[in-house]
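About this split. The held-out portion is used to measure sequence recovery: a designer receives only the structure tokens and must propose an amino acid at every position. Recovery is the fraction of positions where the proposal matches the reference. Here is one held-out target exactly as it appears in the evaluation file.
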């Protein structure tokens, strides 16, 4: 994974009543989608699956605005961690990381974090393209919704 020199811009954690390997499989299953209010679909590029260097496409929306991003896996440790860098227009957008730890009682503590990597150009262009003015606040909300969705999917219960 890219060396992280500062605290994440957004982060949250939950406890999931499942083994880390089961939680990890749900994270990397792009077919399940992420109803976090922004990312609605994803797919591995070229039939790849989760491995360091593998790429995936993500489709996002905010109201009537739609955009596509590319993710490249930077960390892939089944049952322990999954990280990726998102780019758009060939420029870094963000680093994302899921970290899984077993809580000692058979459950998994799942933490999701993100670091904004946008340079000056994307800091100006991205709000126009996405309609999101406060990216850190939006990502915090998205993380909380994604974690709730993952727990619901794993527990097979509706949100």
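Reference sequence for scoring:
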């Amino acid at each position: 994974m890219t060396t992280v020199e500062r605290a994440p811009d957004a982060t949250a954690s939950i406890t999931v009543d499942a083994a880390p390997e089961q939680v990890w499989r749900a994270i990397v299953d792009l077919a399940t989608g992420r109803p976090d209010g922004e990312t609605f679909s994803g797919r591995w590029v070229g039939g790849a699956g989760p491995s360091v260097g593998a790429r995936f496409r993500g489709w996002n929306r905010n109201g009537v605005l739609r955009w596509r991003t590319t993710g490249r896996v930077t960390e892939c440790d089944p049952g322990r961690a999954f990280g990726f860098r998102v780019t758009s227009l060939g420029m870094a957008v963000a680093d994302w990381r899921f970290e899984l730890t077993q809580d000692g009682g058979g459950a998994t503590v799942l933490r999701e974090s993100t670091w904004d990597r946008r340079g000056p150009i994307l800091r100006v262009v991205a709000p126009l393209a996405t309609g999101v003015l406060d990216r850190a606040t939006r990502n915090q909300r998205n993380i909380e919704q994604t974690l709730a969705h993952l727990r619901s999917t794993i527990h097979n219960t509706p949100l």
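Annotator remark: The chain has a mean pLDDT of 90.
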